[in-house]
Amino acid sequence: MRGAVYNSAIPETSQKSVNNAFCPAFVVRVLRFALLLGAFGPAVARAADWSAVEQQLARKIVAVTGPGAVALTVENHSSLGRRDGDIVQNGLRSALEQAGIHLVKAEQSAASVAITLSENPTSYVWVAEIHQGAGAASVVMVSVARSGRSSVVHDSMPIALRKTLLWTQDGPMLDLAVLEENGTPARIAVLTPENVSLYRLQSGKWQAEQTLEVSHTRPWPLDLRGRLVPARDHLLDAYLPGVICRTGAGGVVTMSCHDGDDPWPLVPAGGSVNASVFPSAGSTSKTSAAIPPLAAFFAPTRNFFTGVLTPAIGKFSTVPKFYSAAFLPREKYTLWLFAATDGKVHLVDGVSDQPSKFEWGSDIAAVRTSCGAGWQVLAADAGERSSDSVRAYEFPDREPVAVSAAADFPGAISALWSEARGDTAIGIVKNRESGSYEAYRLELVCSQ
Amino acid sequence: MRHIAWNWFVASSLLLGALALEAETRPRYGGTLHVTMRAALTSLDPADGSQPDSFARRSVTALLFDTLVSVDESGHVKPALAESWQLARGNQRRQFRLRHGIRFHDGTPLTGEAAASSLRAANPSWVVISEGDSVIIECDSPDPAPLAELALSRNAIVKRDADNKLIGTGAFHVVDWQPGKKLSLAAEEEHWSGRPFLEGIEIEMGRSFRDQMTALELGKAELVEVAPEQTHRVSQAGHSLTSSAPTELLALLFTREASSPEGKLLREALGLSVERGSIRNVLLQGAGQPAASLLPTWISGYGFVFKAEADLPRARQLRDQVRTIPAWTIGYDGSDPLARLLAERVALNAKDAGLSLQPSASASSDVRLVRIPLAASDPWITLQELAAQSGLPAMKSKSGPTEDLYAAEQAELATGRLIPLFHLPASYTSSSGLRNWALRIDGSWDVANAWLESAKP
Fold it and tell me: Which of B302, B381, B449 to mutate to probe the A interface, most A CBs <10 Å?
């Protein structure tokens, strides 16, 4: 945190005073009619919702002033945007005129009415302060419930990091797996704290297929994590802290979950029992890389892996507790990278465990491409930035070399997992602006 | 320029945004958070009416105990211990179904009867019964208080064992409790909303603002309070500063009701004589908002209607309508240097209006300078709690349209017992190693999701 946080104005707030003398009634009506014709569709819908409230306030004002000449000012001190504020102001003028008030300049008026568009946490509050003669002001007001918020989000490096938004939803999302694709994803599974939802792309729209409950007996830990792993002999497995879920084989998909500390696969399941096969996406050589399978135990009440591995990496059956892992195949061994809870990335080659000095975030993932050295590590940045970002790195030796510019995301990255196809990764982000959760596919594209 | 732009929820979102800026790495488990506070709590009982309400008390209560419902940053009521509820007979019968599998810190399950018993103890006038895993609250009035009342600290669910020891369901349990001095807490592994990242919390009480800043600078505390008049300085010194919306009312409270219409005129004159703007600029160093309303605009939506500008001619005019001018004493908290300065300044303003006001640190006085933390949830509840704390007449209604709320507030102000001066924020500063803590809508701090960068899980 830096500096005080409670001194700024609502960015959208407009504050304007409009004297009705400069806005004759027919102009107001014409303007409103024009708006109603559809120039501002969404706003008009809301203005229509407000018309009853506008009339209610107008009736209350007229009950104090009686019909006659009134000078009117309207100020918007609420979070209503300028456009909506204008629509409400115009609506109020129309409502007052319909109620028998003639809007005039201040010097011609018998009364002045100052309307403030205000708000409290749950309602818009529109307050009219009515001045007649030298007496104290009369105050009338109306309120209307506020609706929920609405939502809205290259380089000269040798490799470009491309992000494609696959899915967005309001509720928490832990992971997304692409189950089928035909050039583009055609069927996906979305993991949430409570279920796995299956969707299929039909006629260009995602259609919900099925929702499978994730049953669990213990409370989930904070910073809940989870991973979906597509399988060969059944649809998928879902790994959550202390809970493993597995879909059944057959036409109608079912899923059973059980409490357990089965290790989570760090190398996505692939072609054979002894090795995972990663297609070389985009590669002209069409070669495959065989990676020995590796799994790690996840702490059932925490947000990290315990460090216990199965099988061991050389002499290391345990490594420091870690949040995520990535691997880089070498000629005679595989170099593993663990983003550990001590804030360091540990490089483990089976003989040594070398804590690094470079600062990455907690989430890393490996991808196999036809660019550069062929294997890259995607890592979330750890620096203090206005948005989170991911960058691709290569390891000529033991020091990372950035090979892509940072791809910025509209919020904190809560998950970054390699996809089963091996050449892409899925990143889950909570959008700071909208509060929604977004799943992106991250893909490396050779720039040259 | 009047601006409702300093709206609390914007503050919240800015706060969350600011906090999120530092949340690029995954939260770490472990470590002990050290907090200091000025309040010296002598009881942890949320329903203990003899303890003054404070942001500190609310913060501590929320660590140990849960409520049936909670209020989010948008003012909406959300499930907490109760996962759902039903309203019947025009809101007069409310049935809350408890979340399954919740246990008190002693391992006993939370039952409908346990929750009902707790609510009855906190609200002797309520009719609360249990029905299986449900709690039913019945109300005779056709105008029951809003649901948000159940989110107030005093309605936290507490189990009292045979030794009258308090047991909660909160995210932390008590390890050591030295009333008025120190409270040590440890994380609950099985808390229903998730085990906290922090291993424990050490809270030092009765520490002056100066001592708290020293503790922060020496690395002995990660979260400390900041006095309103110090916020500017703390920010300028490069410390991170987090302030809530104005959630505390600084006011003059007359100990007795006005005995005559003339008495009310003099109180009105006193209110008009106070130069809140210059006091804010000089004594409060720009903190807070001058106020003539009980509820700040961000809670009510109409607070600006009550004009806070001084009007000395009008004050004198009112004073001149009264023949005998009493010599009032104004009391203040002697341990608060700011309170003394404020009382002296108010007395000076009063003198300009022809009123006599003598500052006094003694307990007995005609009028006291008071600081009242606002409930800051539903505006009706906020006003109701404020009236109860100040000894103002009980409100006839507990809910209704905003215009009725305005009328109720006017009626409370018309008694002349309370003269609002300022609405103040709750301010805190923290070490850079404390991540992801937050301020609640009611000005208390929330460390449910906080974690320490230095933690070694």
Answer: B302
Between CA B101 and CA B2 the distance in angstroms is 50
How far apart are the C-alpha atoms of A116 and A129, rounded to whole Å? 8
Question: Is-contact A394 A373, C-beta < 8 A?
Answer: yes
Residue that the structure tokens 């500052």 belong to: B359
Cβ separation A6–B1 shorter than 8 A? no
Average pLDDT, chain A: 80
Q: Compute the average pLDDT of residues B409-415.
A: 94
CA-nearest residue of chain A to B76? A122
Query: What pTM does this model have?
Result: 0.76
Mean model confidence pLDDT for chain B: 90
In chain B the first and final C-alpha atoms are separated, in Å, by 50
Asked if A15 reaches chain B (Cβ–Cβ under 8 Å), the answer is yes
pLDDT at B247: 94
Q: Which of A61, A73, A69, A68 is nearest to A23 (CA)?
A: A73
Q: Measured between alpha carbons, how far apart are the two ends of chain A, in Å?
A: 41
Could you give the percent of chain A with pLDDT greater than 70? 80
- CA-to-CA dists, residue B191 to A172, A232, A283, A404, angstroms: 20, 38, 50, 42
CA–CA–CA angle B145, B151, B154 (5° rounding): 95
Q: Using CA atoms, how far apart are residues B434 and A398, in angstroms rounded to an integer?
A: 32
Contact assignment for A224 to B441 by CB distance below 8 Å: no
| Backbone Cα Rg of chain A | 30
Cα angle value A362/A276/A365 (rounded, 5°): 15
Asked if B172 has any chain A CB less than 8 Å from its own CB, the reply is: no
Say yes or no: B11 contacts chain A, CB-CB below 8 A. yes
The 10 Å CB-count burial string (b at 16+, else e) for A291-317 is bebbbbbbbebbbbbbbbbeeebeebe
Buried b (16+ CB within 10 A) or exposed e, B145-161: bbbbbbbbbbbbbbbee
A109-162 pLDDT, tens digit each: 888 999 999 988 888 999 999 998 877 889 999 988 875 432 222 334 678 888
Residue B354 near residue B382 (C-beta atoms within 8 A): no
Between strands A111-119 and A68-76, the pairing is parallel
pLDDT at residue A106 in the model? 85
The dihedral region occupied by A68, where left means phi > 0, alpha psi between -120 and 50, and beta the remainder, is left
**Measured between CB atoms, which of B3, B17, B195 is closest to A221?**
B195
Long-range contacts at B318-321 (CB < 8 A, ≥ 24 apart):
B318/B265, B318/B266, B318/B268, B318/B269, B318/B272, B319/B265, B319/B266, B319/B269, B319/B353, B319/B354, B319/B355, B320/B354, B321/B262, B321/B265
Residue-wise pLDDT for B206-254, tens only, equals 999 999 999 999 999 999 999 999 998 898 888 889 999 999 999 999 9
Touching check for B177 and chain A: CB below 8 Å?
no
Q: Which residue shows structure tokens 């916020």?
A: B231
Asked if the C-beta of A224 comes within 8 angstroms of chain B's C-beta atoms, the answer is yes
